[in-house]
Amino acid sequence: MNKYTLTFRSEKLEQQYQDSRYRYTLPICKSLNLVSFLLCLFRSITFIFQDQMVGFFVFLSLTIVALLAQFFIFNNNRRGVDYYLLIINHFLMLQQQYVEDGFEPQESFVFGQNQLLLNIMIILISDFKFSSIHILGNIIIKIVISKYYQPSLSYQTILYSVVIGLMFLYCIFKINQQYRLSFLFTTQDNQQGILEYDNFLEQLIPLLTDSPFALCTYDKDNVQFQQKFSNLQHHQEFKQFSNNHDALNFILRNYSIYGQTLETFLLARQKKQDDLIVNKILELKSNNNNHIQKLFIRYSECFVTELIYILIIDKKRQEIQHLQQQLVNYKQGLNKFQINFRNFLKKQILILDKSLNHDQNSIYQAITKLMYIFSKFKYTKSSRITNQSFLLMFKKYAKLYQQAYEQKQMRIEFCSEIKEISTIENSLDEFLINFFTHLFKTKAEIIQIHLCNSFFEQNEFIDIIIKVDVMSELYMLLQKSTHFRKILKLISPHDYVIMSDDCLIVRLYKNMNEINQMSSFLIKSD
Q1: How far apart are CA 194 and CA 37, in angstroms?
Q2: Which of 25, 166, 231, 274 is 20 to 30 A removed from 137 (C-alpha atoms)?
């Protein structure tokens, strides 16, 4: 609570107090306003019979103001009530200049007492900030008008008026302070259930999460963060601390986020209570190389009577990141092994190829088998689409497998327009190796292949038409090979071989750039 204005530092608590005050202020204001309306109406009627038109219009205006206030200010705008009372009270003060010479002494005293009681009632039901304006305005208006109409007014009277006014201001200050303290104590009593709820949470949260956590608040008096409850000390990484408070301070001061310590980050959040954060992942970096380099914290805020920070250390996320880093290292090691192993085998093949006494068929068969093995070992997949010479590559692999298996006869026919294909980089190599490997695994002695263009649904394809005497055997072999079908799925509209009456058809996209453009269009249209 501010010691001068008596305003609660918490905006939400201040709003609760104002809501509570309006519950008894509004009925009193409405009653006073209704009585004022009737009195002004009666007075305006009286002035008509007395033929005093100036007084009639003045009190008629006040009657209308009181009527409008009853319907608009009190029903729709509660904050306007204090300003309305401020205007009315100062209007009553200004009536001092209308003191009539014809007043009898006792009548003047009674009139002044009535005015004073009205002023006091309005001051008592107003908030302290407005009450202080009422009192100071009363002192100033009273002295200025009196000095104007009676220049001989003594300075002793002026000093007496100021001192009495300040004494009244002090009384109102203490009364409003007591009002607010009573409200605060009542609120705290009501929060006793919330405290019991906090104790319940203290027992419940450890059951919901096995991760280290801390709930803390900022103590402005001691200028430090205080943990409400925590289980940090129950975990091995915080065993060295004597209590949970020291463990919390260690995390706040030794880990940074956004270029500042976590403690500084939380202090900055004090000014943003209207924008609470709920369940945000914070990645903290250690300021000391001797400790855990990174901490992942599930961070949330809530406001009960004060801002509460909830910090849950996400150990599982840290373990996942550690495992991911290990996986990256394993991948790099595996790729390095594959490269070195491939180079070693190439050197061995070259040595065998240079030997004088060797079987050419066996060498080529070894090469094809190694190529097939390497195709299975490929880990990284490219997504880049390039133009490749389909016919040259097809002939190259056909010739290699023909040299490896001379007992099989292969006949290839192709259309003249088949030259290039636009497909995924490296996928065509992998496809042809697997295709010819499975083709030459069959018992077929004569293999006929025809390459031609085909059109389906306005798309152009390259069809590989195969005719062998063991059609069903080849079909089953290709269908059961998940590795072959996985490659086919990337560069073909189907992940299977099309079986016709007298042949098998493997269909490939001729231009995958068009497919990619269509996919992009479809994605954007969603």
Answers
A1: 46
A2: 25
Q: Name the more confident of 287 and 75.
A: 287
pLDDT > 60? residue 379:
no
| Phi, psi angles (nearest 5°) of residue 255 | -125, 145
Find the radius of gyration of the CA atoms of the chain.
46
- Lay out the sheet containing 498-499: strands in order across: 409-414, 446-456, 459-467, 504-509, 498-499
Where is 453: in which H helix or E strand? Answer: strand 446-456
Answer yes or no: are the C-beta atoms of 310 and 213 closer than 8 Å: yes
Q: How far apart are alpha carbons 489 and 285 in whole angstroms? A: 44
d(C-alpha 43, C-alpha 51), whole Å: 12
Following DSSP, what letter does each residue of 4-33 receive, concatenated?
Answer: TT---SSHHHHHHHHHHHHHHHHHHHHHHH
Phi, psi of 216, deg, nearest 5: -135, 160
Chain segment 343-375, per-residue pLDDT in tens: 777 776 676 666 545 567 777 777 787 788 777
Single out the residue of 141, 135, 106 nearest to residue 119, CA to CA: 135
Measuring CA to CA, which residue among 214, 128, 223 is closest to residue 176? 128
Q: Does position 51 have pLDDT exceeding 50, yes or no?
A: yes
Strands 307-313 vs 213-219: parallel, antiparallel or unpaired = antiparallel
| Three-state DSSP class for residue 502 | coil
- List, in order of start, the domains of the chain with CATH numbers: 11-190 (no CATH), 193-313 (3.30.450), 381-525 (3.30.565.10)
Q: Measured between alpha carbons, how far is 107 from 472 in angstroms, rounded to an integer?
A: 125
CB neighbour list of residue 486: distance below 8 Å, 6 or more residues apart: 495
State the Cα–Cα distance between residues 494 and 511, nearest whole angstrom. 15
Give strand ranges (E) for 72-208.
Answer: none
Q: What is the mean pLDDT of the chain?
A: 79
What pLDDT digit, counting tens, does each position of 408-444 carry?
A: 888 999 887 888 898 888 888 889 998 998 898 888 8
pLDDT digits over 184-239, tens only?
A: 766 655 555 455 555 555 555 555 566 788 888 888 877 888 887 787 877 777 88
Tokens 């009632």 belong to which residue? 121
